[in-house]
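Title: Comparing notes on inverse folding

I've been comparing how different people in this forum approach sequence design from structure. To keep things fair, I'm posting one structure and asking everyone to reply with a full sequence. Here's the target:
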């Protein structure tokens, strides 16, 4: 184990404790932890993530806009209270990468409840529906009139941010190879690429250029943090990330 890996504290992951075997300055071709696993290193917070089909650069904002959630989908088969599986959910195509994502019930029986997804697969009878297995049992039975939304993990298939409207997930602390696993920083001191010259304490938001940030006076969505020092256009400056604690 490297020196950086020794810095990690064990962190709860919902179902037992997992000790990561990958430092924050390392990447891996194979998963060393569950997607979305949280670790804290001093005053910095990281979540285990997977890069999309494009290499990532250090110090630039990341989003997962490439994957689209399945919204308002019918449950083709009823699911009893206490069950761990919801099967035959009508989807445009089988959703195979929903592990560590979420199922929320948006209408009908069970509405208002959200469950974490353990795994997903194509339904055995059709390629246009999906079966999911949940970590926790269903609280209120679902009927064929229930409608659900399926959302992949926010830390799966990350790409550089190119818009101010998508969900900003965090920042890569190192250059990351396409389709590799890495630790995505979401909180604490972090170098960010800036597209404006701003004073310390300025509120930083996404810019449309290459995963960079700019001041709140220009864009008014997705606040990602605050400058810790004076920022300079086209340079990386230390900021305090405030995305996910």
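Reply #1:
Here's my take.
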């Amino acid at each position: 184990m490297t020196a950086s890996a020794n810095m990690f504290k064990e962190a709860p992951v919902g179902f037992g404790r997992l000790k990561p075997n990958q430092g924050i300055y390392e990447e891996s071709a194979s998963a060393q932890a569950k997607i979305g696993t949280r670790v804290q290193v001093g005053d910095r917070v990281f979540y285990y993530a997977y890069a999309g089909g494009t290499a990532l650069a250090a110090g630039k904002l990341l989003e997962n806009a490439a994957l689209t959630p399945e919204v308002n989908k019918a449950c083709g088969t009823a699911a009893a209270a206490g069950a761990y599986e919801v099967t035959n959910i009508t989807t445009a195509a089988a959703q195979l990468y929903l592990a560590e994502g979420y199922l929320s019930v948006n209408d009908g029986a069970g509405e208002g409840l959200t469950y974490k997804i353990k795994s997903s697969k194509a339904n055995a009878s059709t390629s246009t529906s999906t079966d999911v297995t949940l970590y926790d049992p269903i609280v209120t039975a679902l009927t064929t009139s229930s409608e659900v939304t399926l959302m992949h993990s926010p830390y799966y298939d990350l790409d550089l941010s190119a818009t101010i409207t998508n969900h900003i997930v965090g920042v890569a602390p190192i250059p990351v190879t396409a389709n590799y696993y890495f630790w995505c920083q979401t909180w604490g001191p972090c170098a960010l690429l800036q597209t404006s010259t701003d004073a310390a304490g300025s509120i930083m938001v996404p810019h449309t250029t290459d995963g960079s940030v700019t001041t709140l006076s220009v864009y008014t969505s997705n606040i990602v943090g605050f400058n810790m020092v004076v920022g300079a256009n086209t340079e990386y400056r230390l900021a305090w990330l405030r995305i996910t604690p």
